[in-house]
Specification:
two-stranded antiparallel sheet, mainly alpha, 202 residues, 7 helices, single chain
Length: 202
Amino acid sequence: MRGRNHFVVGIAAAALMQGAAPYIHAHSVFGATLDARWMMIPALGFAALGGLLPDIDLASSLIAHDTGTGRDQGCLTGFVFHWIRKGLGGHRGLTHSLWVCLGCVLALGLNVGTLHLGDYALRLNWDGLLGSWSDLGTAFTLGYVSHVVADMLTRDGVKFAYPFSEAEIGVGPRALRFPNGAWPEYVWVVALVIVALWRWIY
């Protein structure tokens, strides 16, 4: 999936979760209290960062370019990050794996309360290392996980179990998944944004 679409999907995922199970709360900053509406601004920024970060393993990605670690952006950074990317298993390797997703959850948190799925209730109350600021960590985690799931909808899938397996895993049969950057990708992103806005408003 294209970087700009991951940016949008990360924000939409965090906003959708806020509409379904509000997790952003008020914080005291420099003696002033910012309510949840204002805290959504940094939260969506964290979600956007989480939505872009997995592609740091690709030299031509938006996040690599913006951090100065991309292709043709300096001899030292290009050389160093070339070998770092190889160590990460190449594109859609370790940064797109289950283990890094779990690492985000454990370190940064996934604290969205109780999700009601029909007759089932799923409690997701983990603060991670951020304590009372776990709502921002949760936004980052949601953005990060949204990136991995979105790439699993594409033809190439991700190496979800890397380094234990290099098998490319996707959601559904490969023939039904869309090619990277093709028009169905944009339809899917627009549909997600519409659902997130609808859930947010109503």
